[in-house]
Amino acid sequence: MAEIAVLGYGTVGSGVVEALWANQYNIDRKASQPIRVKYVFDVREFGAPIDKLLTHNIDDIIYDNDVRVVVEAMGGVEPAYAYVKEMLSRGKSVCTSNKELVAKHGAELLTLARDMNINFLFEASVGGGIPIIRPLNSSLAADEITEISGILNGTTNYILTKMTKENGDFNECLQAARQMGYAERDPSADIEGFDSCRKLAILVSLAIGKQVDFENIGTEGISRLTQRDVAYANELGGTLKLLATAKIDGPGVYARVSPVILRGGHPLAFVNDVYNAIYIKGKIIGEVMFYGRGAGKFPTASAVIADVVDAVKNLNRNIMHFWSTEKHEILPYGALKTDRLVRIGTNDAGKICQTLNTVDNVTFIKLFGDEIAAVIPDAANDAYERIVHSLAATGGDGRVISRTAIEGE
Ligand code: HSE
Q1: Is 199 one of the annotated active-site residues of the chain?
Q2: Are 257 and 204 within 8 A, CB to CB?
Q3: How far is the CA of 317 from the centre of ligand 1 (A)?
Q4: Around Cβ 129, how many Cβ atoms within 10 Å?
Q5: How far is CA 340 from CA 161, 319, 330, 381, in A?
Q6: Model-wide pTM > 0.90
Q7: What is the rounded CA–CA span in Å between residue 293 and residue 284?
Q8: CA–centroid distance, residue 156 to ligand 1 (Å)
Q9: How far does the centroid of ligand 1 lie from the alpha carbon of residue 195, in Å?
Q10: Which residues have CB under 6 Å of ligand 1?
Q11: How do residues 187-205 score in pLDDT, each as one tens digit?
Q12: Parallel, antiparallel or unpaired: strands 67-72 and 286-293
């Protein structure tokens, strides 16, 4: 029998315990032995039946040699990092859903697990219930990955879908996402793009085998988007998505997280609601897509339990690739050319239209109230920013309301 401990009894932790109990027979069969929760660690109090397993003292778990696998579902970097490090250095494998922890300390914790001949597993840290870490670690291991693009945040995709399909109000949609257990405790991590950014950093680090610091990935969220952006996306034959993209060209890695208008031909354009999808291009395999529920209690719990089963089956064998602590530079994605939509505030429509006439190939000029929207085709960031600033200064009132890349046919 394998006895495990669960750190944190929030959405994910409670999902893991409940799913382990509900699917005990199947899970035990796959693990080839019974898996039982011996401890739940949390600072809060809970009633039956968790009260019998509950401890407020982390030492109960640290010093219990019968516990060889620990689930970390506390979220945040501290104290999760200190606890996980302690567990690993005492020979306990750790399975976590904590993307902040993996993005920040993944290289170090993977190395520690490898040195201890145990496992640090984090399938649930990216894409909720979608298997993506395992494929990158095993099935795609032979390939050289050239692109990873994904809708990696369920909350923002849920909000953008409701804004698009139901004219939903941003704040009401965010509230609904929180009630469904999709959003982070501090939802600015979702709506400002940081959650997607950390997940992208994890995927790229795994693909290239080196540490990518998420702080170096240009990141813009969806909090500034309004129904006007939705309407423009629609008129341009696309749909608004928060896209996390990395293009890998030998040592050059370009990455960004930003709102993008995806036209119908783009493989991620149809991914709606809480669903996430990850599109990967490899030199040998070509294109592959992974699709499923990207957030929520049970999809995430299912990915954690898959790791628990693997950890239990490989108690004394390290099965994960590791990425080195050597840092890999991230190049600004804006260096790559793409079509871009800009919305600029104006108090002199005539003058800003005159300025726009001097810009080559500019299309889709729309005046609406005190703003103008235009598409600047095939521009790299520098050229685009120069145009945006000259527009904002000549006919514009200084406000650049939003900037959105356009992708797909
Ligand atoms: N807040 C995250 C999301 C949870 O909405 O995708 C899953 O990582």
Answers
A1: yes
A2: no
A3: 30
A4: 20
A5: 21, 43, 22, 9
A6: yes
A7: 27
A8: 9
A9: 7
A10: 128, 153-155, 182-184, 190, 195, 294-295
A11: 999 999 999 999 999 999 9
A12: unpaired
